[in-house]
Amino acid sequence: MRVFLSGFGTVGQGLMETVVIKKDLIRSLTGEELVFAGAVDSKTYYIDPKEVCCFCALGTKASEGTVGHAKRDGKSVIDIMEQCEFDVLVEAGPTNIEDGGEGLANIRWALEHGKDVVTVNKGPLALEFGALRKLAEDNGCILRFEGSVGGAMPIINLCRESLAGLRIKSIQGIFNGTCNYVLSRMDSGLPFEQALKEAQQLGYAEADPTYDIEGYDTASKVVILANSVFGRDVTFKDVNLCGISSVTPEAVAMAEEEGMVIRLIGEVSGTKLEVSPRLVPRNHPLAIPGTLNMALIDTDMAGPITVSGRGAGRKETAAAILSDLIAIARQRKKE
Amino acid sequence: MRVFLSGFGTVGQGLMETVVIKKDLIRSLTGEELVFAGAVDSKTYYIDPKEVCCFCALGTKASEGTVGHAKRDGKSVIDIMEQCEFDVLVEAGPTNIEDGGEGLANIRWALEHGKDVVTVNKGPLALEFGALRKLAEDNGCILRFEGSVGGAMPIINLCRESLAGLRIKSIQGIFNGTCNYVLSRMDSGLPFEQALKEAQQLGYAEADPTYDIEGYDTASKVVILANSVFGRDVTFKDVNLCGISSVTPEAVAMAEEEGMVIRLIGEVSGTKLEVSPRLVPRNHPLAIPGTLNMALIDTDMAGPITVSGRGAGRKETAAAILSDLIAIARQRKKE
Known about the structure:
Two copies of one chain form a homodimer.
Chain A: E1 2-6, H1 10-21, H2 23-30, E2 35-40, E3 44-47, H3 54-64, E4 70-71, H4 77-82, E5 88-91, H5 101-112, E6 116-119, H6 122-138, E7 143-144, H7 156-162, E8 168-174, H8 177-187, H9 192-201, H10 210-213, H11 216-228, E9 240-241, H12 249-257, E10 260-269, E11 273-281, E12 292-299, E13 303-310, H13 314-334
Parallel strand pairs in A: 1-2, 1-5, 5-6, 6-7, 9-11
Antiparallel strand pairs in A: 2-3, 3-4, 8-10, 8-12, 10-11, 12-13
């Protein structure tokens, strides 16, 4: 299986490290080798008709900050994919929730050219899921995206495969570790700004935290769940959205008096699509503190099923991508 | 897809009801009809070259206590399967942890004759997993058993499929709702006998509760996890086993003073295989009260992942079987 890797930030590097470390496991699970046919970052690329040397790519990144020595010089990722023989595109480039950006174009091109796709880039999924699903079907391609929601917390493939016999009535969850960290620090009486600063110092929040704090990240995730698990056709604009920057210490204190905490909850069902701070009873599964993600899946026949796991991180997201790659290899092998 | 149903107790009836109710969902997910070719209980059987009428079978069960009108008269389930054209055996007969009983013979026969198998009968899996797995491989058959551990809580297919890229280091869990109900009532100061009696009155515990209370049920489940998730080759006898009948109110009170509760924990890893009452910190995920099952899956790259769900019940176990049947239909369709 030949993989083309678009994006060589934290997640892209994590995937390459993982593939090196898990070479034997991958072979034993799929019966074949997983190699990189090419990799591209914002400035350079590295393609090889045999295979990319992962140590070289990771080494060049460490010493020079780029994946390879060939300059892109205005070449798009598609221009580079066109020069490369591969089976699966892993799209791990920057998320763009305005228009999907280059990631959307890459995924489209790959599906149109018969390549399977694994993406953790949320923009294309939140904006054009219906069109991409159809493109995959029409071209006999597989499109998987477990790592786009909940990092290492199993949710999408779980709902679509392991729980296939159940009708999922709703999913409520904590899908952003940054917001949850900030809110759980506010439980202890810290004001918002101070809790956020602490999250930034610990590396849980970006220098510009808007995307997380205002709920855009969580909103992308509920859109992906709505489209993939509930078969809806919605985009980012359809989400009832409120972030956490207006949560005050007074509100937290009032919640506490009632035995509640405030959490940023994403909720999706056949009709609902909402992200907002909500009161949650202190002993409820969704009152979980810290940076974990947690989802409560309500089902017709089995009542509530909960899952939790680390929602982000280099290794965690890489593991989700790898599970999708293994699933594709197994499925292709059976055909 | 033609299904032969061995066992028409709570779970077997629940499956038939579910298939009736979810006819459309099953067709939309698999592109085919799921029909019963035959069903057998301890005294009677009902086979039909076209398809079993589910309403008739459920009606006969309600009015006469049997699945059909044809008496078994010494015929084994195998004798009946031999007269029947079908694709998949669902083994939902009584669990026998001594020698696997008729369920083991049924599964063997089915795999030897090229039938796929879904089993919730734990005996055969706890005693002969290695041999059954090999038989399935040698005959190109699929063997699935999600409902045998944790009821509707996703665990086996989750670990083997959704988490395929991760190395699972250990699984610790609560796999028996009866024990957990009794222990969580003991948290409130009830003595063991009284908590057990309450569980029996509520229908959570059998009249003879030995199988649950002494940990045999949990032990079967850790054996199934050891063999299927960890690739070990162990049986029931290899489990370090201690049940909950010796947990005293004094022990519970001492635990409480330390901020702990007592729970019956099954633990399995590459080397460990243990079922015993353990002290668990009160805010730990495994301190969950009530009848839910809960598992904490520790992984190499993604740290801890938790899942919880209803561990037993007519509809819940039926849903797990149905998910396995849908997975088989999808896989067979792709081939």
